[in-house]
Each structure stands twice: as C-alpha cells, then as structure tokens.
Amino acid sequence: MAFEGAIGAARRVLGRLGAVIATIGAVVAGLAVPHPAQAGYASLVVDGGTGAVLNAVNPDEPNHPASLTKMMTLYLTFEAIHQGRLHWEDELPVSRNAANKEPTKLGLEVGQTISVKDCVLGMIVISANDGATVVGEALAGGSESVFARMMTDKARQLGMTNTVFRNASGLPDREQVTTARDMSRLAMALHHDFPQDYHYFATREFDFEGRHLTGHNRLMYRYPGMDGMKTGFTNASGSNLVSSAVHDGRRLFGVVFGGSSAKARDKLMETLLDNAFANRDTDPKLVALAAGRPLARMARARGTGRVAHAGRARVAHASVAPVQRRGHAAAHRRVASAHAGKHAGKHVAAKGHTHGKAAKVAGHAGKSKVAAKGHHHRKVAAE
Question: Is-catalytic flag, 285?
C-alpha cells in the first residue's frame, strides 16, 4: 500500500510539473515573433479621417522596422510626459549601453546627462540611437530589454498584432519585426493621442551642445503639406519611410518598406500620396520597382519571353498574402541567380551610392560626434 501511495504521489507531482511546463511554453509562444521577417517590400496609404485603406501591397508581410522603431519609443516618451512620469527638461543619465550605440548618434558619453527634449529631437532629426536608448532605459528602470517588452505590450494595445520590438532604437535584431499595416496604426495613434506633440515630427534641425544638426528626411522638405514622420534603414530592411501629409484638410498616412535606396523610397512615397490625394490607384508594379526586385528579370525579359512572364507573374502577385507569395519567391531567386553575374556591377554601384549617401548624412552631423565612431559601418543603420 505504501508503495502504491508513493507511485500515486509521484504521478501527481509529475502532472503538476507538466502543467507548469505547458504554461511556460504558452507564455514563451506568446512572446515569440509572429512570423520570420522576409526583408521584402510593402506599401500602405490610409486616410487619416476615415481609416480607409487607399493602397496596399503586402501590408501584412513581416519586415524589419529599422529606425521606424523609434516611433514607438517616442510614443512611450510622449505618454510618460503627459502622465507626469517624465518632463521635457528632465536630465537623464547616459549609460555605457547607450553611449556605445552605433552608428547614428548624438555622441553621448558615459556619465553625462541629456534632457528629455534633446533625446526626442535627436531621435526625430538625426535618428539618434544613443538618445533613444537613454530615454528607453529611463522609462524601464535602466533596462533596455524591459523597455522593449513595454514597447511590444503597447503595440498590442494599439492593435499592432504582428509587431515585436527588441530594442529602443531599431538597430538590427532578427526578431524585431513589424508590418506596413501595424506601422500605419502607430503613426495614426501618435497623431491622434498626442496632437500637442505631433509637431515635433516636422522638425528639420536643432542645436545640441553647440552644434547645429540637420535631418535627412528629404521628402518632407519638398513635399507640400508633409509634416513627418520617420525614416529607417538597415541592410536587412532596405529603406523604409512613414509619412503624413495634409491637402485641403485631408490627412493621409503612408508607409513604404524595402526601398532599394532613399531616393527610390521617397519617389514611391511621393507617387503614392499624389495618387491617393487625387483618388487614383497606384500600380503595384511601382512598389516592386522601388524595391529593385523585378528589375533584373525585366531587363532580361527583352531577350526571352519565359523570363518576361516570370517578371509579370511576380508583379501580378505583389499584393497577395505572404503565404501565396512564398512560392513565387523561390522562382524569383532562381531567376535572380541566373543573372547575378550580369548585374553584379549594378549592385556594387548601388552599394557605393548608399555608402556615399550615408557619409553625407554623417557629414551633416559631422560637426558633431555623430560621425566620430564606426563611420565605416554607417550603412548598417544610417536612418
């Protein structure tokens, strides 16, 4: 009897242990990245007044946000200010973790302090990774990883169901993902929830520690009615952009992911907004072209009808769900591989152009410490 009782007790213990393990597994699953990022391309235009989607190409395809991440850092900063947990003139300490962030930065040093306002302006104007980390740590008791969980929690509250944040700045992390639809929700939330602070997104320049820093959201400087919001770039994401503009009292929000260059990205955003304001459709092919995806196949198409058909198929499926597009991705890789040699020179030239642009951005802040460290890594996260 005693032996049978011991067996029963052991079974009960194992049963409870199994329940605990199952619970932990569920929690971990809930924190996991929704889908692996494809580093693809996407676009979305939304009417800010009605919420109507006016353009959508791959709106729910997982992509890396790059410095668009800072939009959530800014959301939580504005929220803390309006709740009285932070004040614009509060001086925040700079940790070693923050000071070591590369490459785009204010050049903060360990042990110094910086005001909340300067962190906000640094994030908006030059996409300062150190400034983003400082304010994130301040809001999370000194831990950037805790702040990242706060960011993801807030994303869920805002309806961003396919977004996971891993840091405050948007520096590369394979598990940090979002979608064009989710970023449009964040953009609209920033405008709706903090109307008194939204004007900061239109800031073009500011002075910091005796240096005059200018931004690199070039499209905002030339597009009528545009008053923000954020650029982003990493090698894994391509050139990203979230914009908002007003014409005749009508506000639109636009998102572009995966541009092959800042110039291509900006041109696409301009076209998307122009067409949306004029109630015209935008050909999905233009979104693919801005990402540089079908260019090699279309050039080869002049010689063979088979390749031309492959290019048309890729464009025709540009707006379908990610699951449907994966089969076409394999075909794309085979075609791209076949012509890699022919177009290698173009890719090299494109990379050189990006490095040149990044160096120019560094030069604007170059009177500062923005370009002081890691200049040769500038392309990793120039915006």
Answer: no
